[in-house]
Amino acid sequence: MGEDQISPDAEVFWSSGFFNINLTLVTTWAVMALLIIGAWLITRRLSSGPRMSRWQNALEVIVTMLRNQIREISGQDPHRYLAFVGTLFLFILVSNLLVVFPGYVPPTASLSTTAALAVAVFVAVPVFAITHQGLRTYLRSYLRPNPFMLPFNIISELSRTLALAVRLFGNVMSFTKIVAILLVIAPLIFPAVLNALGLLTGVVQAYIFAVLATVYISANSQTERSDDHSDHATAPDANEPSRA
C-alpha cells in the first residue's frame, strides 16, 4: 500500500458498477478461511488425555482465558457469550498478527471492517438481552431511570457503537500509516522493531475490542439483575412488623 493510501479499501482488484473487490475484502475472506481451516485441523482429533497436540493446548489456553475474562467482566456464565466474543477476538487478533508478512495490510485498518464488527456488537446487545430477559424487560430498560431518558439512552447505544468502530479503525490505521512512513525514511532499521510493536498492538487491540463487546452485551442484564436484587432487598423491610 502506498504512503498516500490510508485504507486498504483504496486498492481495488476488480470493479463492476457498485460492486468492487478490494484489498479489504480479500484479506477479510483470507483471514476467515484461515480461521475455519485452522479450527477444523485442530479440532478434528481432540484428545482428553495428558498427550495432546501443541495446537490443541494453545487453543484450550485461549478458550480458558476468554472464559475467565468474560466471567470476571460480566459476572455471569461465560458460556452464553463465549462463541460470539471469542469469534470477534480471534478474527481481530489473527487479522492484526498477520501484519508480520511483508505487504500485508490488516482488514481492521479499514473503517468498513471495523464498522461491520461494531454493528455485529450493536445487534448482539439486544439479541442477548432479549434472550436472557425477554422483550418487555429489555424495552423497559430504555426508560430508566425515568421515561425522559429514552432519547439519551438511544443516543448512548448509537454513540458507543460508533466509538467502537472508530477506535479500532483509528488505532490500526494510524499504526499502519506510521509503519509506511518509517519504512520510506529508513527501510533497513525499522522493520524488525515495527513488526514486534505491531504484534503487541494487534493483541492489545483485539483484547480491548473483546472486552468492550462483553461489557456492552452484559450491561443490560447486569442492570436488570441489580434492580431485581434491590427490589428483593427492600421488600422484606416493607413487610417487617413494627418493632414498636
UniProtKB/TrEMBL annotation:
Q: Which UniProt keywords apply?
A: ATP synthesis, Cell membrane, CF(0), Hydrogen ion transport, Ion transport, Membrane, Transmembrane, Transmembrane helix, Transport
Q: Where is the signal peptide?
A: none
The answer to whether UniProt assigns keyword Membrane to this entry is yes
Q: Which SUPFAM superfamilies match?
A: F1F0 ATP synthase subunit A
Membrane topology per record: Multi-pass membrane protein
- Subcellular localization: Cell membrane; Membrane
Q: Which GO terms describe its cellular component?
A: plasma membrane; proton-transporting ATP synthase complex
Q: Which Pfam families match?
A: ATP-synt_A
Family annotation (CDD domains): ATP-synt_Fo_a_6
GO molecular function terms here?
proton-transporting ATP synthase activity, rotational mechanism
Q: Which residues cross the membrane?
A: 20-42, 81-105, 111-131, 168-190, 196-217
Location of the region described as Disordered in the Swiss-Prot/TrEMBL record: 224-244
In terms of InterPro entries, this protein maps to: Alt_ATP_synth_F0_Asu, ATP_syn_F0_a_bact/chloroplast, ATP_synth_F0_asu, ATP_synth_F0_asu_AS, F0_ATP_A_sf
**BP-aspect Gene Ontology terms:** proton motive force-driven plasma membrane ATP synthesis
Q: What does this protein do?
A: Key component of the proton channel; it plays a direct role in the translocation of protons across the membrane.
Q: According to its UniProt record, which protein family does this protein belong to?
A: Belongs to the ATPase A chain family.
Name of the protein in question: ATP synthase subunit a
